[in-house]
Amino acid sequence: MSSSRSSRRSAGWRGPAQLILRLVLMGVGLGLLTGTGLRLLAPRVQQQKISLPSWLADQALITTLLGDAVEPPSAEDAEKNTKAAPAIAKGLKQARFAPRQEIKALSQRWVELAAQQTDLQASAYMLILDDGRFAAMQAERPMAAASSIKTPILLAVLELLDQGTLQWNEPLTLTEELVGGGAGWMASRPLGSRFPTHEVATEMIRVSDNSATNLMIARAGGMDAVNARFQELDLPSTVVNNWLPDLDGTNTTSARDLSRAIALVDSGELLAPRSRDLFREVMGTSVTNTLLPRGLMRGLGGAQGAPDASLARKGYRVYNKTGDIGIAYADAGLIELPDGRRAVAGFLVEGPFNDPRSTELIRQLAAAMAPHLKPIPVPPKP
Hints:
The chain has 382 residues and is an alpha+beta fold. The chain folds into 2 domains: 2-69; 101-373, Beta-lactamase. It has 13 helices and 10 strands. It has helices at 2-46, 59-66, 75-96, 104-115, 150-163, 197-206, 210-219, 223-232, 255-266, 273-283, 292-300, 307-313, 356-369, and strands spanning 101-102, 121-128, 133-137, 143-144, 171-173, 194-196, 252-253, 317-324, 328-336, 342-350.
């Protein structure tokens, strides 16, 4: 009987012991398999060709699991990476607006067209965003901006929206100082009238409302704050010196600045996707299409009806904003091409008051760039 009890006692202890032993062996086996797998993957982890789960993201844990296969960066390497990061980031930003190869034939053609009107001063710029090809004629010369300065003002306002310091439906109050004559309807409203920001921004572009523009400048912190932001954005020729309408032409910009402001938005460099969409929606409401769009349509040939519809039938779309104070005219916009590429272009002309040659010159300059904006042919299918 004692022998029987001893056998049962041994069998009773043997079961748990075997279970524990099996679990230990399984754990060791899984550990070996995991370690081997991670060591094999280590080079790809180092090259960032694959990423580890978040629970393996800690460097100490990776080093523990992989040993010498993944080495933490040395202090010298870490310092180099820290110094290089801003330069890399800056390079990426510059690449978004990166003129690389001049289309000399177009630049020369612009010079020839401008030379035909010796008493007019003209500036022109175009950049195809996808490949960096560009053309320029006195592109950085500061000139009277007229209402074209409303495009970079819209950009500055939408930056505030991204920062959370402005709401799109925030009411803005019309004061005596901000009433601007000329274009628009807000000046006819009583002082103290309040308008939501989205309406003010839209009317600033849609009908070039000068009071709306002044409301936007004031909400963005005033002229000094807006001008400081323009300088930070590398728009050196763009300066607000007076409230709109600024009939004396003291507010300035350049063809290059106008093009860059639009490109900064479209490339996604500055605004979040939602604000970028708002920029395009607002720019798309502009009702004046007789300069850049009509000139482009002329250069493309074909029907010469309403520019927007005629361009759309050919696969083009232009989001533009004009300027007109009689002694100065301007137009700048984003151009969508039929093959999906995009370009930006800006034109400014100064001359005698209400001289029709000024607007005609802008159309001629826009028409001249049309051959260089034709879509890339689709290769035939085999």
